[in-house]
Backbone:
């Protein structure tokens, strides 16, 4: 059976971490607007480049991200979608272009989110995710997977992380309420080790 999984959660909730595991386990595509936009930060669009929005912690305009998601989903048999939809207009667009098998919300407290974001380090070469305290690499600053350099994302400073959380509470919480009202949302407690959270998600999907 193909899986079409939507993973919702605040910045730092663990969407990227869990999506990578889900893509492996269920052999589906990991579709993430965040990574797609980071790979195209300086792409010229009629609204300007994604970079200016991302570095301020703001949302990139809907038409830009809608196009990215439409193209990615058209190519995918099964998928885990991460980072989209982030507002009700995007949620409506998504409902027009695909059907979902599961909608999972990773629930994590705000102060935990800030700690996770500010301590995150990502590999500049392969994109693997680490955390200075919670998931430290074997050698500080060096990627366990490929030996690449670990860097801090521009938007993971405390100031921009808090701005991103504000944007989440204002724009994306209504999306979560929408799926909850429709009866489609399964809430998973995201405050445990990555492996434990993964077990919880797998239990939901295998039910
Ligand atoms: P995006 O890249 O999507 O970022 P985000 O939603 O803010 O999510 P993050 O990647 O920060 O967190 P995550 O939930 O994936 O957590 P992770 O697994 O890495 O978006 C960035 C920007 O792009 C946006 O601000 C916006 O400008 C733009 N954008 C993207 N999509 C858009 C859209 N649809 N519309 C408009 N604009 C859009 O984990 C975080 C850290 O915690 C890591 O260090 C990890 O090691 C650690 N960790 C993970 N799980 C655990 C655990 N269980 N216990 C302890 N530590 C953990």
Residues:
């Amino acid at each position: 059976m193909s899986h079409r999984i939507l993973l919702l959660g605040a910045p730092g909730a663990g969407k990227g971490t869990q999506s990578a595991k889900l893509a492996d386990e269920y052999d589906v595509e990991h579709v993430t607007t965040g990574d797609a936009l980071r790979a195209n930060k300086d792409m010229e669009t009629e609204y300007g480049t994604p970079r200016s929005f991302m570095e301020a912690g703001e949302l990139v305009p809907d038409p830009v991200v809608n196009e990215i998601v439409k193209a990615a989903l058209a190519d995918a048999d099964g998928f885990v979608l991460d980072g989209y939809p982030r507002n009700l207009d995007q949620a409506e667009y998504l409902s027009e272009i695909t059907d979902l098998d599961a909608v999972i919300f990773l629930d994590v407290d705000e102060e935990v989110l800030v700690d996770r974001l500010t301590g995150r380090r990502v590999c500049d070469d392969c994109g693997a995710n680490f955390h200075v305290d919670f998931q430290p690499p074997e050698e500080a600053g060096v990627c366990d997977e490929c030996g690449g350099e670990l860097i801090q994302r521009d938007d993971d400073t405390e100031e921009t992380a808090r701005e991103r959380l504000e944007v989440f509470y204002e724009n994306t919480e209504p999306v979560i309420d929408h799926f909850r009202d429709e009866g489609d949302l399964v809430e998973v407690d995201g405050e445990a080790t990555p492996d434990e959270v993964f077990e919880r998600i797998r239990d939901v999907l295998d039910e």
About this structure: Residues 2 and 108 are 28 Å apart (CA to CA). The mean pLDDT is 95. The pocket of BIS(adenosine)-5'-pentaphosphate is lined by residues 9, 11-17, 33-34, 37, 53-54, 57-60, 65, 83-84, 86, 90, 116-117, 120, 129-131, 134-135, 155, 164, 192-194, 197 (CB under 6 Å).
